[in-house]
Amino acid sequence: MSVVTLKINGVDLAIEEGTTILDASKEAGIRIPTLCHLNGVTDVGACRLCLVEIAGVNKMLPSCVTQVAEGMDITTDSDRLQEYRRMIVEMLFSEGNHVCAVCVANENCELQDLAIEVGMDHSRFPYRFPDREIDISHKQFGIDHNRCILCTRCVRVCDEIEGAHVWDVAYRGVAAKVVTGLNQPWGSVDACTSCGKCVEACPTGSIFRKGSTVAEMTRDRSKLEFIVNARENKQWTR
């Protein structure tokens, strides 16, 4: 096992080679905000909230997909980073239709929590008010595309943990959205096992259980972590 030495926020650390900056920061007890990151699935750097500054590098890099290197001098919290993170959260709110007061995930939403953390009380960007559909064709679950932030957690969980490959991302730019099957109604996709892992993975109220009302949506991330850890330790296979 090779070890590299580096600094994070001025603190000297020795970290195993191949570790991401995000995981190294966690080991050091340093919090970096994330939305698309989920323990147990591959990181894709979609939300850009985990950006950090590295001395000698002229651009900010996503910590979830950037590995540590010998001699790195990393800053995870600065005025510049705080401004960028707030801007990202503002853009997420203005890009979709997020009305917390009538959302099933109100007070249990990672996007809402981050808005509070970065001090967002309004968005400087004009709201797009996109016309997006709600799919409740599945017998147990539904998806409200108005609340989707394209973190792709549902796609990766269904692919890498459940192995059903139900979810994917279709279209490009402002038209991009997550889809089930070949852009079919969720209820008509035979590959869906109704496991609910996508519901557990969603950071907002986009994917929900039918019958949930305002602020009732709760999740248990430990279910996903249990499955991943059990497979890695060969305690459970399917």
Automatic annotation (TrEMBL):
Q: Which residues form the 4Fe-4S His(Cys)3-ligated-type domain?
A: 80-119
Q: Which PROSITE patterns match?
A: 2FE2S_FER_2 (PS51085), 4FE4S_FER_1 (PS00198), 4FE4S_FER_2 (PS51379), 4FE4S_HC3 (PS51839)
**Occurrences of domain 4Fe-4S ferredoxin-type (ranges):** 139-170, 183-212
| InterPro entries on file | 2Fe-2S_ferredoxin-like_sf (IPR036010), 2Fe-2S_ferredoxin-type (IPR001041), 4Fe4S_Fe-S-bd (IPR017896), 4Fe4S_Fe_S_CS (IPR017900), NAD-red_Hydgase_HoxS_gsu (IPR016214), NADH_UbQ_OxRdtase_ferredoxin (IPR054351), NADH_UbQ_OxRdtase_Gsu_4Fe4S-bd (IPR019574), PSI_iron-sulfur_center (IPR050157)
Identify the residues that the record assigns to the 2Fe-2S ferredoxin-type domain, covering every copy.
2-80
- Gene3D superfamilies from the xrefs? 3.10.20.740, 3.30.70.20
Q: Which SMART domains match?
A: NADH-G_4Fe-4S_3
Keywords associated with the record: 4Fe-4S, Iron, Iron-sulfur, Metal-binding
Query: Which superkingdom is the protein from?
Result: Bacteria
Q: Which NCBIfam families match?
A: PRK07569.1
Official protein name in the record: Bidirectional hydrogenase complex protein HoxU
- Which organism is the protein's source? Laspinema olomoucense D3b
Gene giving rise to this polypeptide: hoxU
